[in-house]
Give the backbone structure.
Amino acid sequence: MLRRTKLFGRKTRVTFALPAGQPPGTVSVVGDFNGWEPGRHALVPRRNGTRTISVILPSGVHRFRYLATGSLWFDDDTADGIDGQGSLLEL
């Protein structure tokens, strides 16, 4: 699930959220905004049973995917679009 919060200027805080334990292990969000570097934005467990990470992004179109333990890549069904290269965010 994605949550967006408009900030000053042309920036948006995007919170990436997944249920705890689905998929099991560590999950990070990897995209053009972090050089596709695994582990840089790892989702953190929360008391409400989710895992989240927030990233501040400039306006524009961004591409991302999730990477879980065991080299499991997957997309976000709540993104603005999904194509053969991943999930799309239009900010």
